[in-house]
Amino acid sequence: MDIDNSRVTAYTNKAYDPKLLILAGRKEEALDDSVQKIKEKSPNANLRTLIIDLDSLDSVKKAAAEVNQYSEPIDVLINNAAIMASPYHTTKDGFEGQIGTNHLGPFVFTNSILSRVLASSSPRIVNVSSDGHGFTPIRFDDLQFKNGETYAKWIAYGQSKTANIMFARELAKRYGKKGLVAFSLHPGVIQTNLARDVDFSEFQEPIYDAFGNKLDFTSVNSKTLPQGAATHIVAAFDPSIKDKSGAYLDDCQVANDHLKPHARDNSDDEKLWAMSEELVGQKF
């Protein structure tokens, strides 16, 4: 979690004053900075930090084991961490970096702590996706880009964001009878470190290919931090959308019509789940 994301979390904390807020991230120093930022907004906040590196399934499983020792139920899980359009690399487990960090890591973590989430009286899971899902459907025949030979960083990013949508929908399907509500969402353009690997002069061509128009990214109205937090808050807490479980949210509204056809079609959701289980070597 970077500093800007911690401030988004601070707005969430201030708005709903949760009994416990767990901050998860790779680096203790960054988490300490996040705690400080949140304490500035909410001095009495009850905070706990959790070290997790989504690039490593060993780290993911260790973090999940720690959470499973907590006495408190987990009412809301927000899968927010991501990388975007990074150069080709593999995770510590050999997965293409973006699908590994943005989908497979959260897939294992979420399923590993699911019993703690389902112990809540009103469990919710929120996957932070992106309108960038429009770049591509899941490449079931070449998920790993032939070990980098066919790698295209925006396609890899889009695939991981499509996976976030499908994963949320499948969670809603599998565990809705146990009370689970799950959503995916587009957060909008918020100025955080997510785009650290991005040269936005390269952004126009994939936008044109995916959406049919060239976008001058400098003209996009980025959101303030409270605006950026708003859709997260709606997805996590709004009781009025409880019956829309599995939906995609944008600008605080249910926005399934914003999904590209490949992401709107739920016929491959179970297939992605099964492939994810096969890749991580664990059945859920």
Automatic annotation (TrEMBL):
Transmembrane segments: none annotated. Keywords: Oxidoreductase. Gene3D superfamilies: NAD(P)-binding Rossmann-like Domain. Pfam families: adh_short_C2. GO terms for molecular function: oxidoreductase activity. It comes from the Eukaryota. InterPro entries: NAD(P)-bd_dom_sf (IPR036291), SDR_fam (IPR002347). Coiled coil: none annotated. PANTHER family: PHOSPHATIDYLINOSITOL-GLYCAN BIOSYNTHESIS CLASS F PROTEIN (PTHR43157:SF31), PHOSPHATIDYLINOSITOL-GLYCAN BIOSYNTHESIS CLASS F PROTEIN-RELATED (PTHR43157). This is Short-chain dehydrogenase.
